């Protein structure tokens, strides 16, 4: 089964990351790289996203498209990246995500087959 | 064929429960599709509940259910030629099959499903309850239960929730999820006074599930602990309600009505589990109930031991409700004033919990403040929807 992992950042996580020293932050990034390396056989692609301030949202629901700056939901939790994975079932995806060393929230969403 | 009558309602439920889960497991093996297997089992159960009260329970209920499910399956799966072929090839009796109900249970109680759906699915698939029976037991609309089931089944398929026993590393965590479902059934059934024939005794299902789980995973002490807890409750059920259906408090219960043999058996089960030296919340709760159950008279209750067990329970699973129960025990070891101070610490967290106010009421009376006691009872009365509890509180407000 294919799933997309949506990585979600919180304000707390962002400020924690900022407060880290250079070396500590490098170690945090290293742990994330390592996680990707360990699961390389299941990962089918994905990317880190630019910060939510860079987002542009277009609403097409009533008549003319309305263009606004910012993400489609304003909140304390923002999607900061995604990865597509291919695993046998939800349990395998869960096991993978439980060891994720980065941002504090991850949504697992199955892809339509 | 055995003739069925009103009295065999319980027998009917028992037979259905004994076979529904096994049927679900064999259909799972044929179709590999949880939603389909589940639908077919439900159809077969409904057919059984329609036919058996009239025609009697067949000598081989499993073969009967299987035949109905198979026939229905061939009908329903007209378009799915793959299932159809497999189902058509299947004859009764099939080879003796390993008991795969454990897989069913773990799928039904998967943490990716909402708790209400876990409960409804487990009752339907593993225990063979109908949607209507579940709705009646939980006092919700039938359409609500049906919707929960449909959504859960869709999620199982679309989100790839597996049909298997979790790996060793996840087993403890996933088992906790299953035990929670059984514990909630116990709680739901525990306070219900409903004894009329049409209503399902959820405690019965809880005990059956715990016993099944204990048989399938005999090495897990918490499973044994929960089973002992349920049996200790059931052993004393005859004394919990008076002839008018009113709730009788533990202190006032006629202990000669307790089933001493069942209590001894449950205590023995608990002792065997404790030998593994892997304590857990269910073993500790069962041990506390055993302290009460083994006391010949209210005066013989070993409150020191009970307070100690609550301390251990709080250490493993801190919760304000457990602290409240510890405070009640503390009253008998350290006096009402000590219990009251402990209660004061819980005022903020438990203000909307009726037992908090009922306990305060009791202590206030003992401390010579009957007016404040009545006020606390009135607050408790506002907060409980359970008729049996309401009656006890109303009586206390009137008479003390």
Describe the structure.
The complex is a heterodimer of chains A (113) and B (400). By secondary structure, chain A is of the alpha+beta class. Chain A has a single domain (2-110), classed as Alpha-Beta Plaits. Chain A has helices at 11-19, 22-38, 90-98; strands at 2-10, 43-48, 56-59, 66-69, 77-86, 105-110. Chain A has a four-stranded antiparallel beta sheet. In chain A, strands 3-4 form a two-stranded antiparallel ribbon. The longest helix of chain A is centred in the N-terminal third of the chain and has 17 residues, at 22-38. Chain A is flat and about 50 Å long. In chain B, α1 packs across α3 (61-76) and α16 (336-344) packs antiparallel against α17 (354-366). Chain B folds into four domains: 1-98; 100-140 and 155-217, no CATH class; 227-301, no CATH class; 323-400, Tetratricopeptide repeat domain (Serine Threonine Protein Phosphatase 5, Tetratricopeptide repeat). Chain B is 69% helix and 0% strand. Chain B is an all-alpha fold. Chain B is built from 19 helices and no strands. Classes of the chains: A alpha+beta (113), B mainly alpha (400). Chains A and B meet through α3 of A and loops of B.
């Amino acid at each position: 089964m294919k799933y997309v992992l949506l990585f979600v950042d919180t304000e707390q996580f962002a400020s924690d990351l900022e407060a880290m020293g250079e070396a500590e932050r490098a170690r945090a990034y290293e742990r994330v790289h390592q996680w990707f390396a360990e699961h390389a056989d299941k990962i089918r692609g994905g990317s880190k996203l630019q910060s939510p301030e860079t987002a542009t949202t277009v609403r097409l629901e009533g008549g003319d498209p309305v263009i606004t700056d910012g993400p489609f939901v304003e909140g304390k939790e923002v999607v900061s990246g995604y990865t597509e994975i291919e695993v046998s079932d939800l349990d395998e995806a869960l096991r993978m995500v439980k060891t994720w060393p980065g941002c504090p929230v991850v949504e697992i969403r199955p892809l339509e087959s | 064929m055995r003739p069925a009558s009103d009295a065999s309602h319980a027998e009917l439920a028992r037979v259905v429960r004994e076979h529904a889960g096994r049927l679900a497991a064999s259909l799972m093996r044929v179709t590999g599709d949880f939603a389909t297997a589940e639908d077919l089992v439900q159809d077969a159960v409904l057919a059984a509940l329609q036919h058996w009260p009239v025609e009697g329970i067949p000598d081989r209920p499993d073969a009967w259910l299987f035949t109905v499910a198979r026939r229905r399956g061939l009908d329903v799966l007209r378009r799915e030629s793959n299932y159809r072929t497999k189902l058509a090839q299947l004859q009764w009796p099939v080879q003796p099959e390993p008991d795969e109900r454990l897989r069913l249970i773990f799928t039904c109680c998967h943490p990716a499903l909402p708790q209400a759906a876990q409960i409804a699915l487990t009752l339907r698939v593993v225990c063979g309850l109908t949607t209507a029976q579940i709705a009646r037991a939980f006092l919700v609309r039938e359409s609500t239960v049906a919707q929960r089931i449909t959504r859960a089944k869709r999620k199982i398929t679309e989100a790839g929730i597996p049909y298997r026993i979790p790996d060793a590393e996840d087993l403890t965590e996933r088992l906790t999820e299953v035990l929670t479902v059984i514990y909630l059934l116990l709680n739901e059934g525990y306070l219900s006074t409903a004894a009329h024939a049409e209503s399902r005794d959820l405690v019965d299902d809880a005990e059956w599930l715990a016993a099944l789980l204990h048989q399938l995973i005999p090495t897990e002490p918490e499973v044994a602990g929960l089973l002992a807890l349920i049996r200790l409750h059931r052993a004393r059920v005859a004394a919990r309600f008076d002839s008018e259906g009113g709730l009788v408090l533990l202190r006032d219960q006629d202990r000669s009505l307790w089933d001493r043999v069942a209590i001894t058996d449950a205590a023995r089960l608990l002792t065997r589990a404790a030998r593994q030296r892997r304590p857990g919340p269910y073993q500790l709760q069962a041990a506390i109930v055993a302290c009460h159950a083994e006391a010949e008279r209210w005066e013989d209750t070993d409150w020191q031991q009970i307070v100690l067990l609550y301390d251990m329970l709080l250490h493993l699973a801190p919760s304000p409700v457990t602290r409240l129960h510890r405070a009640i025990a503390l009253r008998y070891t350290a006096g009402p004033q000590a219990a009251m101070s402990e209660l004061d610490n819980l005022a903020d967290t438990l203000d909307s919990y009726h037992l908090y106010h009922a306990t305060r009421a009791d202590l206030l009376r003992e401390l010579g403040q009957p007016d404040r006691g009545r006020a606390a009872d009135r607050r408790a009365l506002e907060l409980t929807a359970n008729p049996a509890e309401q009656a006890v509180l109303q009586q206390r407000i009137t008479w003390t």
